[in-house]
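## Example pair
The file below holds two records. Each record gives the amino-acid sequence first, followed by its structure token line.
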Amino acid sequence: MTQQATTLMGIDWGTSNRRAYLLDEQGGLVRQHDDHEGILHVAGDFEGSLKNLLDALEIERADIVMSGMVGSRNGWREAPYLSTDRPVAQLAQAMTEIGTSIPGVRVRVVPGYRYVDPHGLPDVMRGEETQVFGALALGAPDGWFLLPGTHSKWVRVEAGRIAEFSTFMTGELYALMSEHGTLSKVMGARESVPEAFAAGLEAARHGGFTHTAFCCRALVVADMMPAAHTASYLSGLLIGTEMHEVLRRGAGAMTSPVQVVGSAALSSRYLSALELLGIPARAWQPDGVYVAALRALFNLPG
């Protein structure tokens, strides 16, 4: 390989997947690479995995900023959580540097955030803070940010600081309940049924989740709902439980748009639920948001 200038690279390194973004000197996206080399798949050899990635992309010199679970206790190097009194604009100054034996390569990790609610219950995030940072850099206003996923996050931003956030195991519970247990036995086809989704969203208003989840099964065995509606009903019930909880915690009537940062597939049902509940929303494309965050972390022009 010929000698190259230093490449600016961002890596969103999660539990199962890894996404790399190569930028030019002006912060424009030059190339993107996705693979399944998440932290669970590298057997602890993070440096070797990174070296293989650089070789595959034919990169000799790189300044690398990483975010996500790579900075967790089970990742490459634990990056200490920031407290929520630290503005998101300070993420660049708070990155943890990781030394490697790869010549010409600098590696830094973005820290996550830790929050303790008024009842003393803690919550943590890794990776979502970078997406919030990117959306703010693109002009998103203060207010609520929704980051759907296996573990959905609701983040409220005030004056450039994360005032509070809550995590919901919505995606994980949907996967578990649709594959195992009593609901999986009655669940029919998995196609989207909008009226069943809306019914589940409405049912979430009326009781605790463990009860309403059983009612989902009872609706089928009592011949009050077709089995083919179960998947959509459960999805609406889970997402509705999440949203009503956020509203009950003091968000009140959300008059300003919720900023939704996620893939189209992940975001579509949340956007549908917000519309059904009369809550305004704006969707952001996650790759564009991440690139904006990288520009800010590398201190490049916006």
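Second record, same layout:
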Amino acid sequence: MPEVMDWLSRLLDMTAVRGRLDLRCLYGAPWRIDQARALTGEIPYHVVLAGTAVLDDPKGGPPLRLHAGDILLLAEGEAHVLHDGGGAPPEPAHEREAANVTFSENGGTGERLDALCGHFMVTAAHERMLRGYLPRRLVVRGSGNAGERTNADTAAQVTGLVALLRMESETERLGGRAMLNALSTALFALTLRLASESLESPSGLLALAGYPRLAPALEAMFRDPAHPWTLPSLASLCNMSRATFARLFQEKLGHSASDLLTDVRMTLAANELKKPSVSTMAVAETVGYQSEAAFQRAFKLHMGVTPAQWRRQAQASIAVHA
């Protein structure tokens, strides 16, 4: 019997996101962080522990001010700039290696910033699923006006987790780096949970999760992706007409229900193909295809390679890292 999981737990189980803390930044104004575009499979994050930071929008939009307790996640991995907002040339920063974390510091004497900078890692099979269905820039407010969120308990959990990250980065205790990376991994799940519970849920999957009328369809597709879901059957779960369901789903997610179902199926298929003892036909049936040929066409269209090629690449990667 399959495990009972909510859609977010199943998504994280499918994609196996791992977190890594790269730097703890201790700066006095004037300061500036220029971060290049992330590598393939990396999603940068920043946590403001103390002080404030300004995020420039590379697409020309208004700058975004971050405050203590805020968490920034950049799903597209775009190059970005964070600074103190004063406009003065930044004081040069230098790095100092500690036992479990690298500190980046400068000689600025103005308002202080204390921030954690890291990234979440995903494999090629899962990158499309995460980047395509998360907001380009996701900011969650771990502290601040409680009226802006619907679940203060989750906000308290985020605050507690960030406090643990801060404490672990300040000490040199045994296993500290492993703890920091494990806490970073948990931070991804909690950040998405808090964002989904916001009164103003962002776009993508988080918007669907925060919209109760569509939640039954979202849960159903993640719970049983092999089921022969149709637009009418999903609409029925939500007690909507087919036209209303299709319009609201596209409006909230930015993709159709069929697009999401295919992405979920292909992500699961990519995972199953890593198992050498499982036949391609068995994988096809697991994700809802009765024809191996139809599955192979869909997989190649989605992943750019055939299931056999994907399996060989996955096994070669496992051998390299063994």
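Notes on the second record: The first strand starts at residue 18 and ends at 28. Residues 15-200 form a domain with the Jelly Rolls fold (CATH 2.60.120.280).
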